[in-house]
Amino acid sequence: MKHMGQISLVSISILFSIYQRFFEHHPFFTLDFLIFTAIAWVVGWQYDKARYLGKKARDSEESYKKLIDSLPEPVYITQDHKFIYVNQAALSMARAKNIEELFGKTIMDFIVPEYKERLLERYKQIKKAKQPVNTIVYKARRLDGTIFYFEASSMNIVFGGKDALLSIGKDITDRKEQTDRLLQKSEKLALLGQMAAGIAHEIRNPLTSIKGFIQLFKANQQQDEYFDIVLAELERINSIVGEFLFLAKPTAAVFIEKDVTVLIKDVITLMNTQSILNSVEIFVDFEGVIPTISCEENQLKQVFLNLLKNAIEAMPDGGNIFVKVKEREEGNISIKITDQGVGIPIERIATLGEPFYTTKEKGTGLGLMTCFRIIESHNGQLLIQSEINQGTTIEIVLPTITQPLLKKEYSYS
Questions:
Q1: What is the C-alpha separation between 170 and 10, in angstroms, rounded?
Q2: Where in the chain is the domain with CATH 3.30.450.20?
């Protein structure tokens, strides 16, 4: 650290005293001289220190920019959603010629409308977290109007002396399109035939019942219970169609920070009546402090409802269901649902989650398929263990709000 400030101010004090000595005949070493020189020394030292720290900060910021520019992945820094710095990879991703094209624009100008609420909710989570939050996929529009998908992880930083948000991402459009094409080629025809056969079979059964009872009505042999059966069969058709609509309709779910223990308590409250009627008791154990997760609340509740309903139906003579929630390892939570039911043959476990494959007499298999899809969209895992006449355990593993994405896979044992 150079001492130019100290030297300059002390020199001024000395020159002033020389002037007084020769032109006003004052003594050179006076109390005023010592006081002013001491003040000049301290002020000069503070001035030099401020200059040094300012230069160090500027050098650090320049090094920071050089590091960001050298990264092959898109990196951008925003304040109040406005771009203040982007690297070359981010400019290429946005199809911008230079950073000036992005000045005055916000990240919201690029995100498509149905994904904006997801982004705003994620920013709320980032402000609360002290470390990078897990990556999330967004759908956006480039400057030239083309649509692309990118996944990004963000964290709070200080840039230019102000709070800012640094995000690093990746354009996954090609990967997503390639995956979609491969899935369509390998599964489209097989799934179409399977679904068509399943739809015909599942809807024909209640329609046959309805047709028979309408013939009874026509013969004037009406009974009140027949109306109840017809209504129940119609509701069954409606339920099947509803499950198909959920599986077929793509949605941009809004993920918010939630306490999974609250979701589970709400679901168990809803299931209490059904469990009591079936002589089933549900026991819940929350082990330690459970970290929060980022989720779509209603979708996760649907998963818990489906799994608890399956567990109750697996125990026609009653029994107990044990729900255990704990932090499985740092960054992941585990939700285990264990019943004392009839169990599932090991050779059938691998096919669970396929449409119209079910172990229940009147099931469609769509409920469990829906569970798999929801857990996959939450970057989690669904693990199944079962033993004949001993029961079944289904474990859901979900990342906590600050955990990087889990590998998307399903495991069976």
A1: 56
A2: 71-171
